[in-house]
Specification:
This protein is mainly α. It has a domain of 81 residues. 54% of the residues lie in helices and 3% in strands. Strands 1-2 form a two-stranded antiparallel sheet. The protein is flat.
Length: 157
Protein backbone atom coordinates (compact mmCIF):
# COMPACT_ATOMS: atom_id res chain seq x y z
CA UNK A 1 0.00 0.00 0.00
CA UNK A 2 1.30 3.43 -0.88
CA UNK A 3 1.17 6.53 1.30
CA UNK A 4 -1.38 8.02 -1.12
CA UNK A 5 -3.58 4.92 -0.79
CA UNK A 6 -3.41 5.16 3.01
CA UNK A 7 -4.30 8.87 2.88
CA UNK A 8 -7.34 8.06 0.70
CA UNK A 9 -8.40 5.36 3.16
CA UNK A 10 -8.26 7.90 6.01
CA UNK A 11 -10.22 10.46 3.98
CA UNK A 12 -12.91 7.86 3.18
CA UNK A 13 -13.10 6.68 6.79
CA UNK A 14 -13.32 10.26 8.11
CA UNK A 15 -16.04 11.14 5.61
CA UNK A 16 -18.09 8.11 6.64
CA UNK A 17 -17.54 8.91 10.32
CA UNK A 18 -18.61 12.56 9.87
CA UNK A 19 -21.75 11.50 8.01
CA UNK A 20 -22.82 9.06 10.73
CA UNK A 21 -21.71 11.36 13.55
CA UNK A 22 -23.83 14.20 12.14
CA UNK A 23 -26.85 11.91 11.82
CA UNK A 24 -26.47 10.67 15.40
CA UNK A 25 -26.06 14.23 16.69
CA UNK A 26 -29.19 15.38 14.84
CA UNK A 27 -31.20 12.43 16.14
CA UNK A 28 -30.06 13.09 19.71
CA UNK A 29 -31.04 16.76 19.43
CA UNK A 30 -34.42 15.86 17.91
CA UNK A 31 -35.06 13.28 20.64
CA UNK A 32 -34.11 15.77 23.38
CA UNK A 33 -36.41 18.40 21.87
CA UNK A 34 -39.28 15.94 21.45
CA UNK A 35 -38.88 14.67 25.02
CA UNK A 36 -37.99 17.95 26.75
CA UNK A 37 -40.82 17.54 29.29
CA UNK A 38 -39.67 14.04 30.19
CA UNK A 39 -36.06 15.21 30.54
CA UNK A 40 -37.16 18.05 32.84
CA UNK A 41 -39.22 15.62 34.94
CA UNK A 42 -36.22 13.30 35.07
CA UNK A 43 -34.04 16.12 36.42
CA UNK A 44 -36.70 17.15 38.98
CA UNK A 45 -37.27 13.60 40.17
CA UNK A 46 -33.52 12.97 40.45
CA UNK A 47 -33.15 16.11 42.59
CA UNK A 48 -36.10 15.09 44.78
CA UNK A 49 -34.62 11.59 45.19
CA UNK A 50 -31.20 12.98 46.15
CA UNK A 51 -32.78 15.32 48.71
CA UNK A 52 -34.88 12.50 50.22
CA UNK A 53 -31.79 10.28 50.44
CA UNK A 54 -29.82 13.08 52.15
CA UNK A 55 -32.60 13.49 54.75
CA UNK A 56 -32.65 9.73 55.39
CA UNK A 57 -28.84 9.61 55.74
CA UNK A 58 -28.86 12.52 58.21
CA UNK A 59 -31.64 10.86 60.23
CA UNK A 60 -29.73 7.56 60.21
CA UNK A 61 -26.61 9.29 61.59
CA UNK A 62 -28.71 10.98 64.31
CA UNK A 63 -30.26 7.66 65.32
CA UNK A 64 -26.87 5.93 65.32
CA UNK A 65 -25.35 8.64 67.49
CA UNK A 66 -28.21 8.42 70.00
CA UNK A 67 -28.60 4.61 70.07
CA UNK A 68 -25.23 3.23 68.92
CA UNK A 69 -27.08 0.81 66.64
CA UNK A 70 -25.63 0.46 63.16
CA UNK A 71 -28.46 -1.67 61.73
CA UNK A 72 -31.39 0.75 61.80
CA UNK A 73 -33.89 -0.70 59.30
CA UNK A 74 -33.88 -2.97 56.26
CA UNK A 75 -31.64 -1.20 53.76
CA UNK A 76 -30.54 1.47 56.26
CA UNK A 77 -27.26 0.83 58.00
CA UNK A 78 -24.44 2.95 59.37
CA UNK A 79 -20.81 2.14 58.84
CA UNK A 80 -17.87 3.87 60.45
CA UNK A 81 -15.04 5.07 58.26
CA UNK A 82 -11.67 5.78 59.83
CA UNK A 83 -10.36 9.16 58.77
CA UNK A 84 -6.74 10.21 59.28
CA UNK A 85 -5.54 13.70 60.09
CA UNK A 86 -1.79 14.32 59.93
CA UNK A 87 0.88 16.80 58.95
CA UNK A 88 2.08 15.85 55.43
CA UNK A 89 5.62 17.08 56.18
CA UNK A 90 5.84 14.90 59.29
CA UNK A 91 4.47 11.96 57.29
CA UNK A 92 7.10 12.47 54.56
CA UNK A 93 9.88 12.68 57.16
CA UNK A 94 8.65 9.44 58.72
CA UNK A 95 8.41 7.72 55.31
CA UNK A 96 11.95 8.79 54.38
CA UNK A 97 13.37 7.71 57.75
CA UNK A 98 11.68 4.30 57.52
CA UNK A 99 12.08 3.88 53.74
CA UNK A 100 8.39 2.99 53.48
CA UNK A 101 5.27 4.42 51.85
CA UNK A 102 7.31 6.31 49.27
CA UNK A 103 6.00 6.89 45.74
CA UNK A 104 7.49 8.79 42.86
CA UNK A 105 5.53 11.74 41.47
CA UNK A 106 6.16 10.65 37.88
CA UNK A 107 4.79 13.78 36.22
CA UNK A 108 6.92 16.16 38.29
CA UNK A 109 10.00 13.92 38.04
CA UNK A 110 9.78 13.72 34.25
CA UNK A 111 9.39 17.49 33.99
CA UNK A 112 12.56 17.88 36.05
CA UNK A 113 14.40 15.15 34.15
CA UNK A 114 13.74 16.94 30.85
CA UNK A 115 15.70 19.99 32.04
CA UNK A 116 18.16 18.37 34.44
CA UNK A 117 20.98 15.97 33.59
CA UNK A 118 20.55 12.90 35.77
CA UNK A 119 23.08 10.07 35.33
CA UNK A 120 20.42 7.34 35.63
CA UNK A 121 18.06 8.85 33.02
CA UNK A 122 18.57 7.80 29.41
CA UNK A 123 17.03 9.83 26.58
CA UNK A 124 16.01 8.76 23.12
CA UNK A 125 13.89 10.14 20.33
CA UNK A 126 10.87 8.22 19.16
CA UNK A 127 9.23 9.20 15.88
CA UNK A 128 5.51 9.86 16.02
CA UNK A 129 3.35 10.39 12.93
CA UNK A 130 0.78 13.18 13.06
CA UNK A 131 -2.16 13.59 10.72
CA UNK A 132 -3.75 16.86 9.77
CA UNK A 133 -7.44 17.05 10.66
CA UNK A 134 -8.06 17.92 7.02
CA UNK A 135 -5.90 16.12 4.47
CA UNK A 136 -5.38 17.48 0.92
CA UNK A 137 -8.46 16.63 -1.13
CA UNK A 138 -10.60 16.02 1.94
CA UNK A 139 -13.66 18.14 2.51
CA UNK A 140 -13.71 19.52 6.05
CA UNK A 141 -16.20 17.71 8.26
CA UNK A 142 -18.83 19.49 10.33
CA UNK A 143 -16.65 19.02 13.40
CA UNK A 144 -13.07 18.03 13.99
CA UNK A 145 -12.68 14.24 13.91
CA UNK A 146 -12.76 12.61 17.30
CA UNK A 147 -10.09 10.17 18.32
CA UNK A 148 -11.45 6.61 18.21
CA UNK A 149 -10.30 6.02 21.78
CA UNK A 150 -12.59 8.80 23.03
CA UNK A 151 -16.13 8.00 21.87
CA UNK A 152 -18.82 10.67 22.16
CA UNK A 153 -20.32 10.34 25.61
CA UNK A 154 -21.98 13.75 25.73
CA UNK A 155 -25.42 12.20 25.48
CA UNK A 156 -26.95 9.08 26.90
CA UNK A 157 -29.48 8.41 24.15
Amino acid sequence: MTLEDAIQMVITARTQYHTVHTQVHQLREAWATQHADLLQEHARSREAMQQAEAVLRALAIELYQSTGSKDLAPGVKVRELTKLIYDPHAALSWALAHQMALALDVKTFEQLARVTVLPFVRRWSEPQATLSPCLPGELPGPTAPEAPSHPDTSSSL
